[in-house]
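User: Please fill in residues for this 285-position structure.
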């Protein structure tokens, strides 16, 4: 979710992952969305089509990587998950350059099935994570309304952001150091194309088609094919770095933290959307 992503074992004395807290937080989020009714059948049809687009050779595709990144770029800026990323003004911004193809594909699918672009981006992001082998399931809701107003510019941390700067960006949106460490792990399914055009397509770990902790291991040990400056800075940041180190040896803990944070990101600024519907059941099993 940096400006160029195609898209994100330590001593337990340094950091302890509170799984119970994550589960309680998810329960709160589920309640706060006031889920109503069963998931409309159209989302099962959408899920089937997304699978054909997101999986190839048993691994997740570049379109899947773009769908994951699109959630960050639509939901994180002020305005939240409102589909504004698909508006020409917002999509044309340099941080979104690599997302033009993926977002236009998702917008076309939203129009085809008669659903909001905002819902399509959120659902497709969750679907894309599951499409990567070993990817976890994020509780995913639909019922958002699309916005006709572009989000304010300059709210995404740049690819060379300092560790403290990145953390401040996320704390301002209600995410902790643990959340940021978990979310940056999405770079396990990432390839960069614009930060260094001479290395276009370079992945952030050696297994970009698989959802695993290799990203954390190779980022910390400086062994990744390509690492964003911002990621290196986060690995050295006083609060985020120890959590990344913990996740490097604890995939279960990372998955739990990621799905909690990713689910909450998809609900940013949706309080006025009315009752949302839980469509997790439509995601691939």
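Assistant: Residues filled in for all 285 positions:
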């Amino acid at each position: 979710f940096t400006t160029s992503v195609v898209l994100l074992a330590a001593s337990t004395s340094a950091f302890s992952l509170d799984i119970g807290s994550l589960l309680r937080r998810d329960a709160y989020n589920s309640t706060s969305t006031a889920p109503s009714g069963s998931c409309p059948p159209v989302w099962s049809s959408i899920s089937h089509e997304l699978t054909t687009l997101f999986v190839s050779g048993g691994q997740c595709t570049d379109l899947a990587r773009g769908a994951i990144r699109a959630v960050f770029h639509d939901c994180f800026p002020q305005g939240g998950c409102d589909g504004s990323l698909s508006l020409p003004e917002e999509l044309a911004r340099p941080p979104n350059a690599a997302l033009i193809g993926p977002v236009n594909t998702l917008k076309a699918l939203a129009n085809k099935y008669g659903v909001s672009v905002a819902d399509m981006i959120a659902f497709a992001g969750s679907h894309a994570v599951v499409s990567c082998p070993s990817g976890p399931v994020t509780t995913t809701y639909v019922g958002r309304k699309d916005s006709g107003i572009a989000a304010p510019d300059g709210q995404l941390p740049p690819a060379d952001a300092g560790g403290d700067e990145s953390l401040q960006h996320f704390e301002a949106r209600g995410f902790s150091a643990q959340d940021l460490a978990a979310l940056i792990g999405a770079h396990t399914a990432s390839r960069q194309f614009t930060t260094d055009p001479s290395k276009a397509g370079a992945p952030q770990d050696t297994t970009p088609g698989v959802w695993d902790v290799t990203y954390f291991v190779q980022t910390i040990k400086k062994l990744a094919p390509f690492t964003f400056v911002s990621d290196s800075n986060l690995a050295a940041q006083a609060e985020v770095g120890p959590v990344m180190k913990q996740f490097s040896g604890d995939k279960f803990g990372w998955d739990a933290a990621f799905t909690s944070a990713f689910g909450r990101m998809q609900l940013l600024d949706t309080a006025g959307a009315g009752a949302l519907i839980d469509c997790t059941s439509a995601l691939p099993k």
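For context: Confidence is low (pLDDT under 50) at residues 1-35.
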